[in-house]
# Entry
Amino acid sequence: MHAAVLKKYGRLLWEEVPDPSVKDDEVLVKVAYAGICGSDMHLYHGDFSPRTRLPLIPGHEFSGMIVKAGKHVHQYNKGDRVVVDPIVWCGACAACQIRHYPACSSLKLIGIDMDGGFAEYVAVPQTTLYRIPETISYRNAALVEVYSIGFHACNRAQLKKGDTVAIWGTGRIGQSILQAARTITESLIFCIDVLPQRLAMAKQAFPDIVTIDSSTQDPVSVIREMTNDRGVDAAFEAVGHAVPVPDRPNPVQGCVRSIRGAGTVCVLGLGDIPSSILTKELIWKEAKIIASRVSHGEFKQAIEHLQAGRLQPDAMISAEFSGNETQHAFSLLEKHPDKYVKVLLKMHSAKTNG
# Structure
């Protein structure tokens, strides 16, 4: 088979590699589409070293069809259309003992800790599989993983109908939170970024949201004014590597200052620079800061909403490339981050696609 192999950091090669072996409790998936995630960009630059070992086939967001099943696989069959939850937990640590698998102390991810979906075929455990109906194309199904992160964040924040929301960062994760949140609440949603083109993408998909360019406006002041100084019920930080803006709070500070009393801040951004907050601002509000990582079974939730037409995959997908163009796709994302949200890689011909 062929795969996009990360031989050295900053360079992906499309080359012929051995077909994956399939264990008794695994299936072989013929990959249709795979999505490039922000984590893949970190991986590409070596930010996960020494956790990841090269050479590696990345890719943890993908859809496809089962073409072979191990002898201990009884719930899935050859020909099933599936998406793959890339999370592999240990089952033994304190978090796993209470079934809080995203907090597993030795959590591993397909495509980061082991070979993934930037390939024509990949072997995965049967426990990672979710069936997708014929009404969802493989192209759109490749977004289920990133949508599940958005739904998980909303679940962690206990978002409910009627809640107002602020989302710092309108990249892949921010826009997945936006789409997930819109299935829960019809109330006011603010999106904050320093990239006008990304804000425009979000606004085009959801004209009723309020977009704020924090390089020209003070987000907290706008939110306070438009909520009659009440603040929002929940604020999400999905920026990660924030670009400092003079006279503006960092994204986590902005979240704390924009929520109402007893509101919730949910932090997802994987930044390496500490984000300072004034703890008394949090204490005065008796507010909560929680973290959200990957997903916790929200694949089913994402599939149901995608099937019902409540999500807008076309608003997420900025471009598609063939598998042999993987290096080119990464180069474009690196050079023009403001122009792309989700880029998909097509691993097989239309015969595989729904």
